[in-house]
Amino acid sequence: MKKNSLKMIMMTTMMLMFVGCMASTTSVQAATKKTWKTEYMKIVKKMNKEDQAREKNAYSNNEYTYDLIYFNNDKTPELVVGLDGYWVSMYTFDAKKKKAYAVMDQWGYGACGNVGYEYIPKKNTLRNYNSDFAGAIRYVYFGKMKNHKIVSYYKNSLKMVFFTDKNNNGYPDEDEYDESESYYYGDKKVSSKKFDSYMKEGKYKPIIGKMSYKKIKNKLK
């Protein structure tokens, strides 16, 4: 075989190997990009199956709803699943472990003074207002996502008290309701200015589902 012919064969073989490697790399990259969608799709299908079974003995006429939000500042959105007025769940995807985690697992709201959950997009901040005794005690909770869980920003609770606890029993008696307003960090009474310093300000959005099963499936294709 002539040297020129052998050289051409070798060059062609090398080119084919290079193209094959590039195609393989591109395929792997594409698969990696789709992983979070694949994992979220598994959750969505599972929840839809649960929803269909629930409808046979439904305590609500509402269907499960879904959304994709950017809770923290990475490039992958979080998946929201909820039953409006009852509970909401949020899932996050760990790109290194290639696995989805339930950050909020059917957190209830809409009853007992809990008005729901809010977040500041891409700021890793959750806010929740809750109350007891018909609003005589109002709690404010601020959370953040850490190790695939929502944990409190603060060691102690934040609350506003709208009565004078004369007998120190921790709840309002009939003769204790008044227009006074007190602020607490845990059991320690603080000034309104100090209380305000704990507030995480920003443009909050509700953590609720906004899409039907059909729409979220299209988003995850």
Radius of gyration: 26 Å
Which range does the strand content fall in?
A: 25-35%
Biggest β-sheet, characterized? 8 strands, antiparallel
Overall 3D form: globular
Number of helical stretches of at least 4 residues? 3
List the helices and strands and how they pair.
Blueprint: H1 3-54, E1 65-69, E2 78-83, E3 87-94, E4 99-108, E5 117-120, E6 125-132, E7 137-146, E8 149-152, E9 158-163, E10 177-185, E11 188-190, H2 192-197, E12 205-206, H3 213-219
Antiparallel strand pairs: 1-2, 2-3, 3-4, 5-6, 5-12, 6-7, 7-8, 7-9, 9-10, 10-11
Characterization of the model:
There is one protein chain. This protein is an alpha+beta fold. The protein has 3 helices and 12 strands, in the order αβββββββββββαβα. The strands form 2 sheets. Strands 5, 6, 7, 8, 9, 10, 11 and 12 form an 8-stranded antiparallel sheet that branches. Strand 7 and strand 8 form a beta hairpin. The radius of gyration is 26 Å and the shape is globular. The two termini are 52 Å apart.
What structural keywords apply?
alpha+beta, eight-stranded antiparallel sheet
Could you give a quick summary of the protein structure above?
With 221 residues, the chain is of the alpha+beta class. The chain has helices at 3-54, 192-197, 213-219, and strands spanning 65-69, 78-83, 87-94, 99-108, 117-120, 125-132, 137-146, 149-152, 158-163, 177-185, 188-190, 205-206.
